[in-house]
């Protein structure tokens, strides 16, 4: 039976030259897919799918264990809720104040560390000490600060015992100052990240620029204003955008320090999600607030990517 | 003839330097007060914690609070959970992250830019936006209140960072080294394993420290995905302790000191690489 070839036999036979070429035509870069596939699959299942899931849950509701479609009812409910807008306002204050303080502190310490010190070792130790707050967990940071904030704690000892204030501050219990108190802890915890980023960029500024400015007779302030700051502009814009994105979604500290209280004075949108979905058990409404967060974040993210692209990041 | 300028300059320079050093050291000391206070509170007897006037260092030292924490099996279990979570995440993030970083760094394939952008976008995704699906899905697939579930989702949030930072690091290593190895008969994967990874050790240490610190400190996912000490980590234990025994400042501070100790130790030893990782150009 010369006309019949079993498929098995075909495999055993020598491969025709044209087939070899076809195999080799598999592009060289195909191996790249093999390397990146595990991470892509991982992120598709553990991040991208849950994102789609949260959006899908936000337009549905659950009763007796079954989910059914309700359209935008939850969104309407959330957007008409003054509690949401209160949280939105708190988030705006929290984010703007934290970001501004991170940049100022980060910038100040980066400039100080960038100066010439008489002892390199002392500078390294100081740098390490200044980075240290970043190492502690938000839980530990929250606890250290609640001891300092205690009515009989260190700060109130200074306020009452040394500066003669009539009554101790209720840092976390007074609605007027609770948000500011939480922001202070957040600033303490996160400024090192920005300090290190700015320091890295400072060290990359070519020294000739400063020498040229010095020759032209520019003083320290002028050199900062006309040389350092323009050189740092790119990184400052990039990290403050990143900081806004990261601070916007922050919830740990608030859960540990105040649980959104007193009242709802420190409730941010992120904590509002946590409270609605987990503490009140309203998963669908929590999904709607999460989805609103995702939309806002996508806008920030897009801005950030635009900034990175314009900076011409060498990575891509 | 006036010959003063050089020494005069040096003296003025010295004052300027002294000012900069003084301000920096003073600020660093001031910013570490919360830490000193925490450690001190774990070491001093209860009557000294909120005493007037407070003293920076404990007058009477006691280790009873530390001993009490260490003797408690629940807290030892929290430590174990935190360690398992941090190490498992570290392993996953470094192995998968290195593979992807290598692929992105050495091959230009259709869609690579879009994938990188997608990963960068995930890097900025806050955990809180996904707690609802995680809570829901963990129940559905039976991973609620398990350490494995926590490891899986925690890795999802640290993998984008590790991939990005490692890609930046691999980009800085010349490709000629692997080409030479492949001329000698290695295949790609061998070149990665034998040539690139050993050279990338500083980068791996930096990224690994970053991942380890991030996992050890993970709080929100652990709170959302656990309800018994079986899957709870130190951060959750700390927060729960705080809520439950509000007046036991010694115990809370001893526990937070113990919880922070591994990270401070790691940081002190690996500071150089952490700083490198933090200031790496990849995310700014």
What characteristics describe this protein?
heterodimer; A: 316 residues; mainly alpha; two-stranded antiparallel ribbon; B: mainly alpha; disordered N terminus
Specify the oligomeric state. Answer: heterodimer
Helix content of chain A: over 70%
> What is the general shape of chain A?
globular
Instruction: Characterize the overall form of chain B.
Output: globular
Mean pLDDT rating of chain A:
84
- Secondary-structure element pattern of chain A, one letter each: HHHEEHHHHHHHHHHH
Number of strands of chain A: 2
Portion in helices of chain B: over 70%
Major interchain interface with per-chain residue totals? A-B, 104 and 105 residues
What is the straight-line distance between the termini of chain A?
Answer: 59 Å
Low-pLDDT runs of 5+ residues of chain B are: 1-12
Rounded average pLDDT of chain B: 85
Strand numbers in spatial order across the main sheet of chain A: 1-2
Uncertain ranges of chain A: 1-12
What is the end-to-end distance of chain B?
54 Å
Would you report the number of β strands of chain B? Answer: 0
Q: Beta-strand level of the residues of chain A, as a percent range?
A: under 5%
Rg of chain A to the nearest angstrom?
28 Å
Structural class of chain B: mainly alpha
Count of discrete alpha- or pi-helical segments spanning 4 or more residues of chain A:
14
Outline the structure in words.
The complex is a heterodimer of chains A (316) and B (284). Chain A has 316 residues and is an all-alpha fold. Chain A is globular, with a radius of gyration of 28 Å. In chain A, helix 5 packs parallel to helix 9 and helix 11 runs antiparallel to helix 14. In chain A, strands 1-2 form a two-stranded antiparallel sheet. Helix content of chain A is 72%, strand content 3%. The N and C termini of chain A lie far apart (59 Å). The model of chain B is unreliable at 1-12 (pLDDT under 50). Chain B is globular and about 70 Å long. With 284 residues, chain B is mainly α. Helix content of chain B is 76%, strand content 0%. Chain B contains 14 helices and no strands. The longest helix of chain B is centred in the N-terminal third of the chain and has 34 residues, at 73-106. Chain B has helices at residues 5-31, 33-43, 46-49, 64-71, 73-106, 112-123, 131-141, 147-171, 176-183, 188-199, 201-216, 220-225, 234-244, 249-279. The N and C termini of chain B lie far apart (54 Å). Chains A and B meet through helix 3, helix 5, helix 6, helix 7 and helix 8 of A and helix 1, helix 2, helix 5, helix 6 and helix 7 of B.
């Amino acid at each position: 039976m010369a006309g019949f070839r079993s498929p098995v036999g075909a495999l055993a036979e020598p491969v025709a030259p044209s087939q070899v070429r076809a195999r080799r035509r598999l592009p060289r870069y195909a191996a790249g897919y093999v390397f990146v596939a595990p991470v892509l699959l991982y992120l598709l299942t553990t991040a991208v799918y849950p994102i789609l899931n949260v959006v899908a849950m936000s337009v549905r509701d659950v009763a007796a264990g079954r989910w059914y479609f309700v359209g935008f009812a939850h969104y309407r409910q959330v957007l008409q809720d003054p509690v949401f807008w209160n949280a939105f306002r708190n988030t705006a204050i929290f984010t703007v104040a934290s970001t501004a303080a991170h940049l100022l502190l980060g910038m100040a310490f980066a400039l100080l560390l960038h100066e010439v010190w008489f002892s390199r070792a002392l500078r390294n130790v100081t740098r390490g000490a200044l980075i240290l707050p970043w190492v502690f967990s938000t839980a530990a940071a929250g606890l250290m600060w609640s001891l300092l904030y205690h009515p009989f704690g260190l700060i109130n000892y200074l306020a009452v015992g040394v500066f003669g204030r009539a009554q101790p501050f209720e840092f976390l219990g007074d609605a007027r100052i609770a948000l500011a108190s939480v922001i202070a802890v957040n600033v303490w915890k996160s400024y090192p990240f920005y300090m290190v980023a700015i320091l890295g960029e400072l060290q990359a500024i070519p020294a000739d620029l400063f020498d040229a400015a010095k020759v032209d007779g520019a003083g320290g302030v002028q050199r900062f204003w006309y040389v350092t700051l323009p050189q740092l502009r790119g990184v400052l814009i990039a990290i403050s955008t990143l900081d806004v994105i990261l601070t916007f979604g922050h919830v740990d500290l608030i859960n540990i320090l105040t649980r959104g209280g007193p009242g709802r004075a420190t409730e941010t949108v992120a904590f509002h999600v946590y409270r609605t979905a987990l503490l009140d058990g309203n998963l669908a409404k929590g999904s709607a607030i999460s989805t609103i967060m995702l939309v806002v974040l996508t806008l920030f993210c897009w801005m950030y990517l635009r900034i990175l692209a314009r900076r011409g990041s060498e990575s891509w | 003839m006036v010959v003063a300028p050089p020494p005069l300059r040096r003296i003025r320079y010295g004052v300027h330097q002294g000012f900069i050093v003084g301000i920096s050291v003073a600020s660093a000391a001031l910013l570490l007060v919360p830490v000193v206070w925490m450690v001190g509170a774990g070491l001093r007897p209860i009557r000294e914690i909120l005493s007037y006037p407070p003293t920076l260092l404990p007058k009477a030292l006691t280790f009873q609070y530390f001993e009490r924490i260490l003797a408690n099996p629940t807290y030892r279990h929290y430590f174990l959970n935190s360690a398992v979570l941090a190490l498992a995440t570290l392993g996953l993030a470094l192995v998968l992250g290195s593979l992807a970083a290598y692929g992105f760094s050495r091959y230009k394939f259709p869609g690579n830019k879009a994938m990188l952008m997608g990963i960068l976008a995930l890097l900025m995704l806050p955990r809180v936006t996904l707690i609802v699906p995680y809570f829901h899905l963990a129940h559905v697939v039976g991973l609620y209140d398990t350490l494995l579930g926590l490891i899986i989702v925690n890795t999802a949030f640290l993998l984008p960072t590790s991939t990005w930072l490692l890609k930046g690091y691999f980009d800085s290593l010349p490709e000629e080294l692997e080409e030479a190895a492949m001329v000698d008969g290695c295949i790609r994967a061998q070149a990665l394993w034998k040539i690139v990874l050993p050279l990338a050790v500083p980068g791996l240490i930096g990224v690994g420290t970053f991942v380890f610190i991030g996992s050890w400190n993970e709080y929100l996912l652990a709170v959302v995905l656990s309800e018994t000490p079986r899957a709870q980590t130190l951060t959750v234990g700390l927060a729960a302790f705080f809520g439950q025994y509000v007046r036991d400042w010694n115990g809370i501070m001893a526990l937070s000191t113990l919880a922070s100790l591994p990270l401070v130790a790691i940081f002190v030893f690996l500071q150089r690489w952490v700083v490198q990782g933090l200031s790496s150009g990849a995310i700014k």
